[in-house]
Structure formats: C-alpha cells, structure tokens
C-alpha cells in the first residue's frame, strides 16, 4: 500500500511538472499571437505562502517587521482564509488568492491562475516555509516572473525525492542554517538577517503595538456571554493532534468547581459532530462553528481570562494577541511551533506549553505508537497529557490574572 501511494504521488508530481511547463508555453504563445500583454504588476518582493492558517500567524509576525524596516511594495500569494486573516493588518500589501485544492486538481483553474501569476513581476520571490508541496508552492515560484528566487530548505516531512530534485531548477538561494526542530521565529530571524534587520529587537516594539491595535476594534462578542470566561479551543487541524474531548470537559468542570468560571468551547468543521453535546454541562457554553468571523473570534480571545488550546491556529493567534495561552502540544514537530523560545522572545512569555515527553518525539507525525488504536484517535503524545497537568498550569494563570486585576483596581 505504501509503495502504491508513493508511486501515485510521484506520478502526480511528474504530471503537474509537465503541465506547468506546457501551460507557461501555451500562455506565452497565446499572448504573442493575440497581440495582448498581461497587466504587469511590479513589486520588489513577493512571498509565496501556501501553508496553513496557524503558520500564517507566525509568518505575519515576520511580515510586520519586514514591512516596518524594508520600505517596498510587496505581494503575498496565499489561500483565501490566510488572506482574510492577514489583510486587515497589512492594508498596503496586495494578496493574490489561490485555492490550493483547485490548483492541484483543476486544469482550467490552474491555467487561469497561471495567467494571473505570470502578470506579476518581482525582483525577488521568497518562499518562507520549510514544508512544501510542489503542486502548489514550488509550481508558483517557478511560474512567476522574477529576477531571483529564495527559499527555506524544506524539513522533508511532506515531500519526495523528485520534489527535492526539482527545487534546484527553481531557486537561486537556500536558507538552511537551522535544524528540523528550530522554531519558525528563529528561521525568520535568519531570513531577516539577510536584510540587516534585528528580528528580536524589532518584535519587542512591534508586538506590543500590534496587541494594542488589535484591541481597538468594535465589540462583536455574541450576546449573553459572561464577563469572565475561559476559552477552550477543542479543535485541531488533524484529529491526531486533538486532546480528547472528555479531557476538555473534565478540565472545564474542575475550573468551574474551583473558581465558578465557565468555559467557552470553540472548534471548526472537524468538530461539527460535537455541536449540541454539552447541554447537560452548566459550566460549558457551546460556540463550536460560531466563530468563523475573524473579528468575532478576535474579540472573544482578547476578552478571555485565558485560553486553553490544541496546537493549532487559535493557540498561536491567542499568544500573538497577548492573552495567556495554555498550549497542548504533541511531539510530531516539537520545537518548530511550540514551545515558543521565550528566552529569546520574552514578549511571548504568555505562552505555556504542556507536553508529554516521549522518546519518539520529532516523528514528523508519522507515529509508531498506534498499535491497537483507531486511526482517528489522538496520538499517545497528545492523549496521555493529563487533565491534572493542564489544570495545574491553568490554575496558576488564573491566580496570576486575579492578582493583576486586584492590583489594577486598587491603583
């Protein structure tokens, strides 16, 4: 089965490699013989960012600093959801939206986007991610008109040898001064070093300003929410990263018993089956699938006493917004996204990472501990994190917040 899957992926890459070349040739021929030219949009820098929305949060921290120190127009090629998240914070940046799935599967859509991509001219094309899919990311970097192309070396967790081989025909420069478990912030530091920018020093001023601005928005909280609540993100990008829902319920029950504070449960489409499951728990408010609007979600986060979350978008968004956040992390990419390197970036001291250390850490989410378990079950490094451990950190944060509130009132 593994050999069949590998062969199919190899065929897919080879097929789209051929189509990429053919689409560029056909487009060039069509433009030549119809005497039409693309509406050229010229930028000094362009970023091809086709990773997930959680990764976009960390990339946005880099972009905040980059735009502050490097005064140039730039374009970001990314997904619709990434663009919706980032666009309000970057009014001077143009976003070209790509539907990753359609780009891989629809030849018509792929040809249409090729026209749009070829209409952009760059001095430097930068691919700021270490896990890439040739059928989207490297394909776009190959098609776009640029003088040079720069890329992070992939961690090879989701690509095959053919994809790695193709890279040498696309990129002029690789950034590779890090190990596979280097935090993304440290990787972006290496990129900004090329521009003579001190990422650590700049974040120390950029992040507080970002947090202040993020709180200066309309209050879009859903009606009838309590003034004090804990936010629990029970969702995850993959089921194997999701802490068991019964653990979240047990944690919410203990927090309510200790402090009388209720918990708001949120989640995405993968948690649809959980809707309506919490009516018998007076200490849980069910907001699953009710926070799709980013402004609503942001307002809920900044009004939370603290956040408890799986390693996913909400956990990183909460950390960046400055809210105390308990992150429940597995070992697949441990160190790359969590824990935050607080010794180097003290502005993220509001991030608390809970994990179960295991000898198989850094498995790149290819688990060898699943004997007798369902394929939809969380991996052991996630499921074996205890409610007691998470509650202990939650209680510590709650006590610290109460002290700060008393000090503010007395002042």
Describe the structure concisely.
This protein is α/β, with parallel strands linked by helices and 411 residues long. Helices cover 44% and strands 15% of the residues.
3D architecture notes:
The chain has 2 domains: 35-214, Rossmann fold (3-Layer(aba) Sandwich); 229-410, Rossmann fold (3-Layer(aba) Sandwich). 44% of the residues lie in helices and 15% in strands. The chain contains 14 helices and 12 strands. The chain has a 6-stranded parallel beta sheet. α7 links the parallel β5 and β6 (173-175). Residues 403-411 have low confidence and may be disordered.
Helicity, in percent?
40-55%
Q: What is the tally of beta strands? A: 12
Compute the separation of the termini in Å: 66 Å
Structural class: alpha/beta
CATH architecture of the largest domain, please?
3-Layer(aba) Sandwich
* Spans where pLDDT lies below 50 across 5 or more residues: 403-411
What's the order of the H and E elements?
HEHEHEHHEHEHEHHEHEEHEHEEHH
**Largest β sheet strand count, sense and barrel closure:** 6 strands, parallel
Overall, the morphology is globular
By CATH reckoning, the class of the largest domain would read Alpha Beta
Q: Please, what is the average pLDDT?
A: 86
In CATH, the topology of the largest domain is named: Rossmann fold
CATH H-level homologous superfamily name of the largest domain: Glycogen Phosphorylase B
- Oligomeric grouping of the chains: single chain
Helices, by number, come to 14
């Amino acid at each position: 089965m593994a050999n069949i899957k590998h062969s199919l992926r190899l065929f897919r890459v080879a097929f789209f490699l051929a189509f990429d070349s053919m689409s560029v040739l056909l487009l060039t021929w069509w433009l030549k013989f119809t005497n039409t030219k693309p509406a050229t949009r010229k930028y000094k820098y362009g970023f091809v960012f086709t990773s997930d929305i959680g990764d976009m949060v960390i990339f946005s921290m880099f972009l905040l600093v980059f735009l502050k120190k490097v005064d140039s127009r730039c374009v970001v090629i990314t997904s619709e959801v990434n663009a919706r998240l980032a666009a309000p914070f970057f009014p001077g940046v143009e976003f070209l939206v790509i539907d990753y799935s359609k780009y891989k599967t629809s030849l018509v859509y792929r040809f249409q986007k090729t026209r749009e991509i070829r209409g952009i001219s760059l001095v430097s094309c930068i691919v700021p991610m270490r896990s890439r899919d040739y059928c989207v990311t490297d394909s776009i970097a190959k098609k776009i008109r640029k003088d040079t192309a720069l890329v992070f070396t992939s961690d090879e967790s989701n690509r095959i040898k053919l994809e790695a081989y193709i890279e040498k025909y696309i990129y002029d420069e690789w950034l590779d001064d890090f190990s596979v478990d280097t935090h993304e912030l440290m990787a972006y530091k290496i990129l900004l070093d090329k521009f003579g920018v001190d990422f650590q020093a700049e974040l120390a001023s950029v992040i507080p300003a970002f947090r202040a601005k993020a709180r200066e928005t309309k209050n879009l909280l859903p009606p009838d929410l309590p003034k004090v609540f804990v936010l629990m993100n029970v969702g995850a990008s993959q089921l194997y990263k999701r802490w068991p829902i019964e653990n979240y319920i047990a944690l919410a029950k203990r927090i309510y018993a200790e402090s009388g504070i209720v918990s708001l449960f949120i989640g995405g489409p993968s948690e649809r089956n959980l809707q309506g499951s919490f009516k018998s728990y007076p200490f849980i408010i069910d907001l699953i699938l009710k926070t799709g609007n980013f402004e609503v979600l942001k307002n809920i986060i900044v009004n939370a006493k603290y956040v408890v979350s799986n390693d996913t978008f909400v956990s990183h968004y909460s950390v960046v917004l400055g809210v105390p956040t308990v992150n429940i992390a597995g070992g697949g990419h441990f160190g790359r996204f969590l824990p935050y390197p607080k010794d180097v970036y003290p502005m993220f001291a509001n991030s608390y990472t809970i994990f179960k250390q295991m000898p198989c850490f850094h498995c790149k989410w290819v688990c060898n501990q699943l004997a007798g378990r369902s394929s939809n079950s969380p991996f052991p490094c996630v499921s074996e994190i205890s409610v007691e451990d998470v509650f202990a950190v939650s209680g510590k944060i709650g006590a610290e917040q109460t002290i700060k509130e008393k000090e503010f009132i007395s002042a």
